[in-house]
Amino acid sequence: MIDFSKFTKYSKPGPRYTSYPTAPEFHEQFSEEDLINFFKNQSDDRPLSLYIHLPFCRSACYFCGCNVIFTSKEDKKVKYIEYLKKELAILKKHLNTNRDVSQMHFGGGTPTFFSPEQLQEVITEIKTIFPNFQEDAEISCEVDPRFFTKEHMDVLKKGGVNRLSFGVQDLDPKVQETIHRVQPFETTKNVMDIARDAGINSINIDLIYGLPHQTKETFAKTIRQIATLAPDRLAVFNYAHVPWMMKTQRKFDETTFAPPSTKLEILKDTIEYFTTNGYKMVGMDHFAKPEDELFKAITKGELHRNFQGYTTKGGADLIGIGVTSIGNGDDYYIQNYKKLNEYEEAIDAGHLPVFKGYSLNDDDILRQYVIMELMSNFSLDIKRTEEKFNINFKEYFADAIEALQEFEEAELLTISDKKIEANETGAMLIRNISMPFDAYLNNIPEDKRRFSKTI
Ligand SMILES: C[S@@+](CC[C@H](N)C(=O)[O-])C[C@H]1O[C@@H](n2cnc3c(N)ncnc32)[C@H](O)[C@@H]1O
Ligand code: SF4
């Protein structure tokens, strides 16, 4: 039996590394012109991955850390679609939109809070601007089961959507009430049936551990009930509590959160349950069936991490479309305006709605590789890294290696000449293990780090 109380000292603010450098390093000096230059230098042979942000939700789930606009007004949605169309038209002027599209993701907010007709309109416009979707393109959509009908499914299916992700979070009635998201099991089951009937064979379910009033027992019940639905993938996120950024999170009584040692036990139980019931762990918070591409990608060393979590499709340039969305190429990140009025103003003036960005230098690219390898595979091939970047790893990262000593002494990882490798317990602390490689984090005093806690 592992003594998890030993590890609670690692419960500290830290990035989730959906990007490196992380979003706080993005800055406003990065201009539209910079982005256009990056576009110009991209090879036409590189496929595109599209992310479309549909930001609206009907009501607030109090835990939510996403970029959301709460509304019940129909005209807001109509107007948003008009702006998406205008943004796409501006994009077409600067980007070769005839490039292949290998991936498209609708995220939110709640994409299916738009009506089926509205979603149809968005999909048609995108496919007009980007006519060359690859035949096996991965097209996915986030779905709130409380806002999803067969008509939505029909439109998505016709539009080529082959993956769905359902938000569930937790099934316990008391937890659901506290988080302001009452969603009976039957609601989730019904939408699963709709999706399966439509022939969708890649369905993900999102759960969150660390929510108020959750205990080992309640979460154990949730995962067992969810397993009866046999999703192809699961994301089991660590609740990111950032009340200084997210007002609704301030509604929670922090004394109702499980302590870090219990959270680690919940995570361990969850890993044990899913891995003995037909799933494999992928990265730090995903599970997939062994025949799922996500798991196969690990064995091939092709698992990548991006803003949506983990993906099998690397080597594409990500184009973010819509308010607040993020895009990136090999050597840059760009984020659109976060405020709707600023996003609209930029577009009205005929500009790409560039809010912030970041241009990566050689050191960033190397550290990005190291961190993403650790976050995806829980290990790093030192020799391969040395060859790829022409460095002496142990000299280049002497500070980081020293910082990792404590993890080695705690038997959470091993460091040899060839590899850094976290073991099963270390994998639960992979954010902490990646942090010493982050050049920027080390410049911020620990008490000033505005990230959620790693445990
Ligand atoms: C945009 S939502 C998914 C689609 C839809 N809006 C829904 O909630 O069903 C993305 C996912 O992010 C996760 N999420 C949101 N806020 C979070 C937080 N504070 N900590 C951890 N995960 C969070 C939830 O699991 C949620 O399902
Ligand atoms: S979790 Fe999903 S439905 Fe709830 S507020 Fe966030 S984006 Fe909206």
Give a concise summary.
The chain is of the alpha/beta class and 455 residues long. Helix content is 37%, strand content 20%. The chain has helices at residues 32-41, 74-94, 116-129, 150-158, 173-178, 185-197, 216-227, 260-275, 293-300, 340-348, 362-377, 382-389, 393-396, 398-409, 424-427, 430-434; strands at residues 48-54, 56-57, 69-70, 101-108, 133-143, 163-169, 203-209, 233-238, 280-282, 286-288, 304-306, 309-311, 317-321, 326-329, 332-336, 354-359, 379-381, 413-415, 419-422.
What descriptors fit this protein?
binds iron/sulfur cluster, 3-stranded antiparallel sheet, 455 residues, alpha/beta, single chain, 16 helices
What does this structure look like?
By secondary structure, the protein is of the alpha/beta class. It is 37% helix and 20% strand. It has 16 helices and 19 strands. A hairpin with a 2-residue loop joins strand 14 and strand 15 (332-336). The two termini are 19 Å apart. Residues 57, 60-61, 64, 66, 68, 108-110, 144, 167 line the site of iron/sulfur cluster.
